[in-house]
Specification:
Lipocalin; 46% strand; alpha+beta
């Protein structure tokens, strides 16, 4: 192979490598975690002591602290509820929360979810049995480490 031909192929392979690297960087930088993956973990509801944990298996666990016991001698307890969640599209999910009493049906809710790093905003529309219609609430969360 002559010298000019060797130089041409060397430049071509360098150009190909640069294009490949550029495409890879653009592809990876354009990807952002889907809310269904980004939601996994434990979150604190801002302005309260309630936490919500979303697990990979579709389980959601809520916990908040309450004082129980006789007046003048309360002791702190953590109340937990469990349920299931599933994303119905990119930013919407359905949630079923057990009320703790096996005689009562679970609470159903639909949620609009927006995650920005360690912050999450959620609009929750609850369809609880016995409610007059639907209740809508907005909540902000911070990821716990």
């Amino acid at each position: 192979m002559n010298h000019s031909r060797q130089k041409f192929f060397s430049r071509l392979s360098l150009f190909t490598a640069l294009v490949f690297c550029g495409c890879t960087v653009l592809t990876l930088s354009s990807c952002s975690k889907k809310p269904s993956a980004a939601i996994i973990g434990k979150w604190r509801v801002q302005g309260s002591n309630e936490t919500v944990e979303f697990r990979k298996d579709g389980t959601v666990i809520t916990a908040h602290k309450v004082n129980a016991g006789p007046p003048g001698n309360p002791h702190p307890l953590t109340e937990e509820t469990t349920g299931k969640y599933a994303f119905t599209d990119a930013n919407h999910m359905s949630v079923q929360i057990n009320q703790g009493n096996t005689n009562q049906p679970p609470i159903s809710a639909t949620c609009v979810v927006h995650i920005h790093g360690d912050k999450m905003d959620m609009t929750v529309t609850v369809n609880a049995p016995g409610n007059n219609g639907q209740q809508e609430e907005k909540a902000s969360f911070r990821r716990l480490k």
